[in-house]
Every structure is written in structure tokens, then in C-alpha cells.
Design brief:
The protein is mainly β. It is built from one helix and 13 strands.
Length: about 170
């Protein structure tokens, strides 16, 4: 198979204009890593405290000719290593209609369309899943309130320790 987008970036083999760091909810077209002549980005990056999520598209062309079908792949990139994000089914392929969410980091990736020539994904680095129950994380000091708490609950930091300190993460609480 073809090298993944993050390794290609580290080697300097991905043109900077074909990569994008996503900071707001946006839809983007992805071109296959193995067919860089197709229109679209080759990699989308979403920042997390541990590293980045890298979203790329693979199709059965060139070095990827043996893969079973066109699919979006999502990787966690930490330092010099990447890890494929597997679905609950154990598969690493994200197909049309699939939704990846990381509630801890308020990130979602929805696969809108997949064709042999490319994929369209909607990426949201401020994903909110809907009203949250008491005790669920609803925001943090860095991003502010991201998610809505259920009726009667407020989104706020929690006190901890004996020195009147407050948590950096915010939680739904009465």
C-alpha cells in the first residue's frame, strides 16, 4: 500500500497546498493519496491535546490497488507515529454515511460521499452531540462551552483539592 498522508508529510512529499488544518466546521473534497492528480486535499488535520487526527482518502489505484474499496481513513498522529482509528466493528474503513466522533475533544468527521475519484467529508472541530446529562463534559477553559447541558444543568468547572482550585474541563452540573 501507499504510505499514509502523515508519513508523506514528514518526508516532505505532500505539497502544503494539498493539506489543511481544519479549525471551523467545513466540508472538503479529498483526493486519493495514490492519485494526487485528482482535485481535493490529500490530508485534513484536526488538532487535539495528544496530537492530530489526520483524515485521508484511499482508493484502489497504483500502490493501493489491492485495497478492497474506496474509503476514508482516520489516523491519530502522535510524535513520529500514526495509529489507524478503528470503528466499533473493528474495520478501519469509514464509508459514505459514517460518522466518527471524539466527544472528549469535541471532534466529528462525517463521510458525506465516496466515489472512486474522491470523497467529501464534513469535519467539525467543535462538535456538540446534543443535551448532556449531569457529570458529562460540556467544554473547557480553552474552547469555552461546546455542548449544551440538559435543562436545569449549567456548564461550569468543578472545584478540586483543598486550595479552591478549579478544573480546566467544564461539566454539566446543577
Amino acid at each position: 500500500p501507499e504510505l499514509n498522508a502523515e508519513i508523506l508529510r514528514q518526508l516532505g512529499w505532500l505539497p502544503p497546498e494539498r493539506m489543511k488544518r481544519v479549525r471551523a466546521p467545513e466540508s472538503h473534497r479529498l483526493a486519493p493519496i495514490g492519485a494526487p492528480g485528482e482535485p481535493g486535499f490529500l490530508a485534513l488535520y484536526l488538532e487535539t491535546p495528544r496530537g492530530d487526527y489526520v483524515v485521508e482518502f484511499r482508493a484502489p489505484v497504483r500502490f493501493d490497488a489491492a485495497i478492497p474499496r474506496p474509503a476514508v481513513l482516520i489516523r491519530e498522529a502522535r510524535a513520529q507515529t500514526t495509529f489507524l482509528v478503528h470503528r466499533n466493528t473493528g474495520s478501519y474503513e469509514w464509508l459514505q454515511g459514517d460518522l466518527f466522533t471524539d466527544r472528549e475533544n469535541f471532534i466529528s468527521v462525517r463521510v458525506d460521499q465516496v466515489t472512486p475519484a474522491g470523497a467529501t467529508v464534513t469535519v467539525d472541530p467543535a462538535f456538540a452531540p446534543g443535551p448532556l446529562a449531569e457529570g458529562e463534559k460540556c467544554g473547557n477553559r480553552e474552547r469555552g462551552r461546546i455542548a449544551q447541558c440538559a435543562a436545569g444543568l449549567d456548564c461550569a468547572s468543578r472545584p478540586f483539592g483543598t486550595n479552591n482550585l478549579q478544573t480546566a474541563d467544564w461539566f454539566c452540573q446543577p
